[in-house]
Amino acid sequence: MLKRRPNGETDTGQAAIEYAGVLMLLIFVGLVGVQLGLVAYAAQQAGTAARAAARTASYAETSMSADAAAKAAVSGWLDAGIDDMSTTSEAVTVTARVKVPEILPVFDFGDAKRTSTMPRD
User: Which UniProt keywords apply (predicted)?
Assistant: First the structure.
């Protein structure tokens, strides 16, 4: 039902504009939730890459490099690599990084980094 104001104007279209504003807010909140999920997933994948690289580097004889093992251990659509690798006579420590994918250009989360240490073979 149209409501008329004393000057004769109506309120047509006001509900549609309010609905569009609320809808945009809900979409933004949903995308923020997905972005935070991607941050957590990238951190988990960085840990997997670090463990795989350290495990591969700890073997005395291996045909695969630690960097190749780190890249093979993560999902193919993620950019992964090794930042640092240190070797002692008893252990190998590897720091792996995974670039956090961006859905919203407003936020920049950079790289997720994880470190893993494995005893040498």
Answer: Membrane, Transmembrane, Transmembrane helix
